[in-house]
Amino acid sequence: MDTLTQAALGAAVGGAVLGRRLGRKAIVIGAVLGTLPDLDVFLDYGDAVANYTQHRGFTHSLFVLTGLGTLLALTADRFAPARDIALRHWWAFFVLCLVTHPLLDALTTYGTQLWWPMDVRPSAWPVVFIIDPLYTLPLLAGIGVALVTGNGRRGPAWGLALSSAYLLFAMGAKILVEQRLEPVLAEQGLQEAPRLIQPTPFNTLLWRVTIIDGAQHHETLLSVFDGNREPTFETFDRGGELEPTALAFERGERLHWFAGPFLRYEIRDLEGEETLVATDLRLGFPGFHAFSFTLAVREDGDWRPAVPTEQLSFDARADLDALGQLGSRIFSPEPPLCTSEFVADRWVVDTPASC
Questions:
Q1: Is residue 39 domain-shared with residue 137, that is, in the same domain?
Q2: pTM (predicted TM-score)
Q3: How far is 36 from 34, CA to CA, in rounded Å?
Q4: Dist CA 142 CA 162 (whole Å)
Q5: pLDDT surpassing 90 at residue 82
Q6: Per-residue pLDDT tens over the stretch 236-265
Q7: Where are the bilayer-spanning segments (predicted)?
């Protein structure tokens, strides 16, 4: 999630745990702790792919943060001014302010390495977009009440309750979408295909569905207001024939570890060289994918590893008015929003007749 939301979450948790005893200090300390895991953005791991896949790494590990929180609790219990605060309350304060950050991150699409240093893929159960005002505003309101009144607990506790209720609503909305999707996938023989269901920007009412089908991927949008309307899929090429070449390189393997099969491969002419580029299909939107990376260059007919660099991946025909169209699509499936209109023709394989 964004920095403001993480600071607000840490502040609200801090107030809810020790606001009665520490007052406004619990809010301030909680906000600092809530942003601490994201300091890894200032670390350079060597190249663009490493920076991309190491973000939300060890600084988001539940093991590391629990250990850090325990150390801080022991320090506060030993050196903080005399207060009627038991060690277990210090421990709950520091650990919860820290670990709620990666737990919230894990509810977004990017992926969070909760179990570092275990070599498992990042955890991602996307039910909220990385910026969602309806989640953040209750936290900010609760913090504001605490800062104005000096009662560090009541406002943050209410803010946490409302924001948590919103997450429960988001989970329910996703389950509803999944239930509508299952029979359609079964009918098309795609029930076992890798799938990603995630909210579209700034809301939990309209959901983007991505299905990986070999060298292609299918996309559709489903709103909680669609009723029994059957979803229709648009099909895109993802350059699957280039996947073995990409996976032959260390950075290609790393990207696959991070994003799974939700990658598109293409050959671009960059500075006069044929360059193999991988794009993360999970993040962004068709035509607006945010992250693409160079993996290799072709020299004398052979592929050689390249120093990974990040490339602009927006298609030339992309139009930011799509955000407004997404908003309209939430409440009505007509007229249909066809994502293929934002994507270069070379990627489009099949679209429904309505497009």
A1: yes
A2: 0.94
A3: 6
A4: 10
A5: no
A6: 999 999 999 999 999 999 999 999 999 999
A7: 57-74, 86-104, 124-150, 157-177
